[in-house]
Amino acid sequence: MKKLLAISALIGFSSLSMAQGTMELLGYKSNENDAKLWGDITTQLQGKGFNWNTELVEGGVIKSEDVLKERVYKGVPPDAAIIKGQDIARWATLGFLDDISIVAGEQAWDDVLPAELASGLKHNGRYVAAAMHVHRSNWMWVNPTVMTAAELENPPRTWKSFIDSAQKVSSRGYAPLITVSEPWQNTLIFESMLAGMHGPDFYRRVMIDLDRRALRDDRVDEVFAQLAQLRPFLTQKTVSTRQEMVDEFLNNRVAFMFADDWVKGEFNRQEWVAMEDYICAPIPESFTTYLFDVESVGLFGTKQPDGTGARLALAETVMSEAMQADLNISRGSIPARTDISPWGFDRCSVRSMREFRSASKLDKILPSVALGMANTEQVRRRIYESIDLFVNTPSMTPKDGATEFSKAVRYGAYLIR
Questions:
Q1: Which of 140, 147, 148 is nearest to 179 (CA)?
Q2: Domain spans of the chain, in order of start
Q3: 303-360 per-position pLDDT tens digit
Q4: Under CATH, domain 139-288+376-415 is a member of which superfamily?
Q5: Nearest-CA neighbor of 25 among 14, 17, 35, 33?
Q6: Inter-residue long-range contacts of 168-175, CB under 8 Å, 24+ positions, other chains counted
Q7: CA Rg value for the chain
Q8: Apex CA 85: angle with CA 158 and CA 184, to 5°?
Q9: What's the CA gap between 28 and 307, in Å, rounded?
Q10: Measured between alpha carbons, how far is residue 322 from residues 269, 328, 329, 350, 358 in Å?
Q11: Model confidence over 209-260: pLDDT tens digits?
């Protein structure tokens, strides 16, 4: 009760003090569904008496990270921003993020968030960010119309069957796979292969711990050997934007697409029905693991004492049961909270919720490097570059790829020491 009174007092005071002012949230816009997301959040806050405005950076989260850094270094940080992965700890270490444990305590975040997810939202044991969505990164999206035309019955579960299916699709005049020329794309495929072929423990050693012995392990060579077999399909049909990638899929021109479940927001806008108009299945051989991405809100209030209650209201709204359900249903992702009912979610989301909760109990949920959840920005960008180089250089052998990958990781880690 004391916590409830304390947070209510802070929020109530701020509602009065901020009546004439506008708070700013920095996000990003990679498709039209993003604009709706932020509009829903600000509408909720306006209903509580808080005036929030959103600045949406065109492009993905990497571009918004660049804008955030520039603004912070210039001394004009936003009141809140989308941050993720180790960037949460970095901003907290530098002293920029509000302690929002009062909200976390009131909403019992420790009880409703998986331990691995919750730990990523904390710094020195205190919550400094609020989770909005969980995306599964190791999804394969399958077009049933193209599958039928190619006389294929089931989504491939192994890489051998994927390549066989891709060849059959190609022989029928369709593109087997579409990719987007954005930094995360090929790394998403690589990390799914790594986790699927060699398990969560080895994935953590390579992608999170950056263990030098693991980086030189022959198992990394095996992943690059598998990626080399996929290379002809990865470069056959590539587009420049996410929207183009989804449009090609929607127009029944391609059979498979590897991406996290942001694509479902676009499917929802077209009123496509899960497991009828499109099929979701884990990327081949990765079905026993769950690679995740969490979009979180960090409150940059330590240098801006005014508006504390308004920022706490944002955290409270983002993590409320109603918002966790409503926003994720429309966006295609799943709630960060594990106590949200699956009622109203489509069949792909229900599967994702079930497997997320199951994997978290078995210690098989893994932070996605491709989507910015593991390691620093410097390490991520070096990983992106090394894997893109391998995919787009047919003359590189798997051994070459593994060597360049190891060098890139070690160099990226060196830059931040």
A1: 140
A2: 2-136+292-352, 139-288+376-415
A3: 566 778 899 999 999 999 999 998 899 888 999 999 999 999 999 999 999 999 999 9
A4: Periplasmic binding protein-like II (3.40.190.10)
A5: 35
A6: 169/255, 169/256, 170/236, 174/146, 174/149, 174/150, 174/253, 174/254, 174/255, 175/236, 175/237, 175/248, 175/253, 175/254, 175/255
A7: 21
A8: 45
A9: 23
A10: 21, 10, 11, 17, 23
A11: 999 999 999 999 999 999 999 999 999 999 999 889 999 999 999 999 999 9
Contact between residue 382 and residue 411 where contact means Cβ atoms under 8 Å apart: yes
The reply to whether 2-136+292-352 and 139-288+376-415 are identical in fold is yes
- Cα angle: 329, vertex 334, 338; to 5 degrees: 120
The residues, any chain, with a CB within 8 Å of residue 400's CB and separated by 6 or more, are 390
For residues 314 and 297, is the Cβ–Cβ distance under 8 A?
yes
Q: Which two tokens stand for residue 301?
A: 């209030």
Length reported for the chain? 417
How far apart (Å, rounded) are the C-alpha atoms in residues 93 and 80?
Answer: 16
The residue written with tokens 């410097």 in the block is: 378
| C-beta separation of 317 from 44 below 8 A | yes
pTM of the model: 0.90
Let me know: does 236 contact 254? Beta carbons within 8 Å: no
Neighbours of 416 (CB within 10 A): 12
**Domain spanning 2-136+292-352: CATH 3.40.190.10:** yes
Of 354, 326, 350, 334, the closest CA to residue 274 belongs to: 350
Residue type, 378: Q
Residue 294, H or E segment: strand 290-299
